[in-house]
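Let us practice reading a record.
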Amino acid sequence: MSATRYTYLGPEGTFTEAALRTLPEAATRELVPMVSVPAALDAVRNGDAAAALVPIENSVEGGVTATLDELAAGDPLMIYREVLLPITFALLVRPGTKLSEVKTVTGHPVAQPQVRNWLRANLPEAVWESAASNADGARLVQEGRFDAAFAGEFAAATYGLEPLVTEIHDAENAETRFVLVGRPARPAAPTGADKTSVVIWMGDDRPGALLELLQEFAVRGVNLMLIQSRPTGAGIGNYCFAVDAEGHISERRVGEALMGLRRICPKVRFLGSYPRAGVSVEDLREPRAGTSDEAFINAADWLARIQDGRA
C-alpha cells in the first residue's frame, strides 16, 4: 500500500481537492485525482492509496448517493475524519465570452439544485447537461463542448477560463461534507465531540420495522444526525439505511445501541467513529439523564451485585 498517496474525486480543481488541501497532512502526501467516487475508493481497497477524500453530504441536497452506495457495498472501508467546506459557485467561461452568449452550461449533478434559481433568473434559455464533476465541466468548457460551467472560482486558472460571475448560490451558507476514508482499523480515540456512521439492513419488511431500529438509538439517548434510505438492489421495497449518530463507539450508549441493532438486523456495517468537523466539546449538550457512561456502568454494577447475591 502506498502510505503517502491520497486519492480524491477529480480532476484537478474540484471542491473535493480544495477540501483535501485543508488537511495538514495533505502537504506531505501525493494527491491523485480520480474520475469518480468509486475509482477513488477502489484505489484504497486495492492498496494503491492510503486514503481517499470524497463528498458524502450536501446541506442543500442531502446525502451524496454515489458515496453512500459505495460505502455500503464492496469490501469494507472506514471513515477517519470529515471536512466541511463552504460552497459557492462561479460561472466559468472561455475568455471574452459574454453572458448573452452562454447557451449551454454544465456542472456536477449536485451543483444544479444549488444554482437552479440563479440559472432560471439569469440564463433561462440555457441548456444544462451534467458532468462527472464541476472541474470536469470546466475542462469541457475549455475544450469548447459547453459555453460555461458552474465550478469553484479557483478552477478557472487550471483550465484557462475566467469567472464571468462569482458568488453564485441559491442557499446562504451552503456547505458540503467530505470524508477521509481508509481501510478498516481500530477507531481513533474519542475526542468528546465525535460522530459514528453505520449502514443498517432491515430484516422483515413489516409495520414498525424501521421504528424498532430507531428505538435502539432513542432509548439510549443517542441523537441521530442523518438517516437516509438507499435501495439494496434486491428489488423494489428492499432498503438499507445510512445513519450518522452523535457520539463514539467507545461510549456505552453508542456501543450498546450498535449491539442492539446487531441483534435485530441481518447486517450492520460500521463505517467509523471520528471527530465532528467544526464542533467542540463545549458546543454539545449534556447527555440525557441515565445515558452517560457513568449511568451505564452503575446499572451494570447493580445487576452484577444482584446476580452475585450482594444486592
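A brief commentary: The CA atoms of residues 124 and 219 lie 50 Å apart.
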